[in-house]
Amino acid sequence: MKLKFTKMHGAGNDFIVIDAISQQLDFTPAQWQRLADRRFGIGADQILVVEKAQGAGCDFRYRIFNNDGGEVEQCGNGARAFVKFVTDKGLTEQSSIRVETMKGVITPRLEADGSITVDMGAPVLAPAGVPFDASGLGGWAEGRDTLWPLPIKYQGGKTVFVSVVSMGNPHAVQVVDDVELAPVADTGPLIEAHARFPNKVNAGFMQVLDRHHIKLRVYERGAGETLACGTGACAAVVAGIRRGLLDSPVRVTARGGELSIAWAGDGEPVMLSGPAVTVFEGEIELTSGR
């Protein structure tokens, strides 16, 4: 079969976007993985699938597959690509839409200047809701946040101290002195697969530049380090504000570009703003079972 697709990115976090309203899709994890492979497929951090809404009051359903073939709950940069895609393709004439995800409804909005803002909902801060197994750990307060010690097998055994936040998907955020020197490639996979996170976790490395500006790198669960991570930016800013290090709004500089995050505090939604860019469109021949 031939599959039509659009290649997009948000601050360098790149996606294959597929219209599953007009095309029939029934792929295995191996086929998703093949599509995302940068040598044998199209290449992407994630594959975004646009479907008809299943519930009342929503405009679309949004599914996300990492480049390892696994389906995940949320992707903030992808949500911005999603709204640009459905707008450009004429699937909606609305500037603000309601979109079903695995973890609830999000409301991305196309702004007059072409940027896209996404209401990502309120962060989940209770460890059990992330989910994070805090049993037997001696966390301590920093501001309104709790830092948790996380032993990892690095350089003979090292403990990193993380804030845990869910933005619809789990994040472990640590503060580093220099994000460019942080051992993301070495410790990211160890944090991602740590036994304390039953569903694995996205590992964030945050450098605070001033109270309204951070640098951030994220080792994404199931994808490796990406050039930007929207939910990771949200989680880092939430952690930084709760720790007393940041004030809203916060500019987040990632390796692929910049995002803007605004958050009014506990119980309030996190607002994510940034670009979404269409790179090219194409068609790929898919072989059954591959």
Description of the structure:
It is globular, with a radius of gyration of 18 Å. The protein has 290 residues and is mainly β. The protein is built from four helices and 19 strands. The mean pLDDT is 94. Homodimer. One of its GO terms (molecular function) is diaminopimelate epimerase activity. Pathway: Amino-acid biosynthesis; L-lysine biosynthesis via DAP pathway; DL-2,6-diaminopimelate from LL-2,6-diaminopimelate: step 1/1. It catalyses: (2S,6S)-2,6-diaminopimelate = meso-2,6-diaminopimelate.
Helix-strand category = mainly beta
Q: Stretches where pLDDT falls below 50 for ≥5 residues? A: none
Determine the strand fraction and express it as a percent band: 35-45%
The largest β sheet comes out as: 19 strands, mixed
- Helical content band: 10-25%
Cα Rg = 18 Å
Shape: globular
Distance between the termini: 12 Å
The tally of beta strands, per DSSP, is: 19
Number of helices in the DSSP assignment: 4
Return the average pLDDT rounded to an integer. 94
